[in-house]
Design a protein that fits this description.
CATH superfamily: Vaccinia Virus protein VP39
Strand content: 15-25%
Number of strands: 9
Radius of gyration: 16 Å
Helix content: 25-40%
Mean pLDDT: 97
Order of helices and strands: HEEHEHEEHEHEHEE
CATH topology: Rossmann fold
Number of domains: 1
CATH class: Alpha Beta
Amino acid sequence: MDFKDLFHKYYYDTHVWSEGNTSWLGVPTLKCPLDLWIYQEIIYETRPDWIIECGTNLGGTSLFLSSLCDLIDHGKVITIDIADNKIPKTHPRIRYLIGSSTSEEIIEELKKTIPKEDSVMVILDSDHSKNHVLKELEMYHSIVTKGNYLIVEDTNINGHPVLPEFGDGPMEALEEFLSTNDEFIIDQSREKFFLTFNPKGYLKKIK
């Protein structure tokens, strides 16, 4: 294991990034702050009309994304979770959907809500099992618009380089998806800070 991976594992295992340790405006945000900075750059550059987040959890990331939309005065967030965690629903740019990110009902609601001409970015951060992430990739890749990003989170698990005991997860789903899909490229320029929880997970739609 090289120094970069050793530091990644050390940082991850401290759980400084986890619930109770990192927050956005007081709301727990289970993210590496370096990835959040990259999200800021992507949103400023691409100015998506809609950001779809699969996996609301405690709501910190959706609040962060909506705050960025406030700063550029553009965009809305739709966040999806199978559980209603009773998050205070106070930000006007956020819409909360309760249900599985891979259910036909949720997909139909997204299609009904988002005008066909609007630009869309998607972040996958729900169930991290390979089969679930692969199904999300198959269902959401067509919703992402050309020039925008499909971000697969937590590709670092299952030994990439953390949690080697996890089993097949987001990285393995991503690799299988890309083996048959040429609409996206891995934008490794988004890994410029060296530490990212989403290695190879910043997918830019080019077709």
